[in-house]
Amino acid sequence: MPTTRTMTSSAPAGARAQANRRRILDVAAGELARNPAASMEEIATAAGVVRRTLYGHFPTRDALIDGILDLASEDIAHTLRTLETDEPVAVTSARCTIALWRVGDKYRLLFKMTDTNLGPRIEERLAPVHAHGSAILRQGQRLGIYSDHLPAEVLSRALSGLVLALLEARHDGIWTEPDPAVAAARLCLITSGVPPAEADEISRAAAELENTQAAAEQL
Length: 219
Description:
Arc Repressor Mutant, subunit A
């Protein structure tokens, strides 16, 4: 059965209204990450708007949740890297992990709420991520770069769970790695079957490529 999504198209038009809407979504994502039970009133206060403004953009809590999930989907889709013919598949994998890490902290707890009534909607938004990861892993398995101890689809989900666990450990202060994005990419490569020394080299090279791209996008 298709997932029913709450319509949010009633949001006021105009550049200022859209900027307010984005700010509310950014703040709401952070508030819900800290406290999944945060009320609409608490979110409005944190966003620095009155309740009327919040409800003008998002008439229900479900509409707000769907807005956050859509925003998360857009942010995550922007991080996905396509397989380039002149780029090794392991480098592309590492770049994806690093890019996802850099946006993942914002949504880490929201995406952990798959055992709540948000589960179907979250899984809907994560489906492209799993499909993208599976395609890269499958290509790596065909080339003999990654081990085939798990089907690509299963390995993709396992790696997503691993990255979320690392994000949570980082947030809780029990993992103090100085360069966590690179470390996460390295661990994902090792889990996929890449030798540790090679995984370290690849993840660092991928980080340099990501830094270069991020700098170019800011110009």
